[in-house]
Design goal:
By secondary structure, the chain is mainly α. The chain is built from 1 helix and no strands. It has one domain.
Length: 46
């Protein structure tokens, strides 16, 4: 395997990981916001 092919494959793998993380982030964002809201309310109460 040449260095060029290895570099391209590495780039694709990294890109895929970043992409799936971004997709997960979009799913988790509303949940995190709800948790933050709940956390702030909880801090106000205590």
């Amino acid at each position: 395997m040449s260095a060029i092919t290895q570099g391209v494959l590495t780039k694709q793998i990294v890109h895929r990981k970043v992409y799936s993380k971004a997709r997960m982030g979009k799913t988790l964002e509303p949940i995190i916001r709800e948790l933050e809201k709940w956390g702030k309310q909880y801090l106000k109460v205590s």
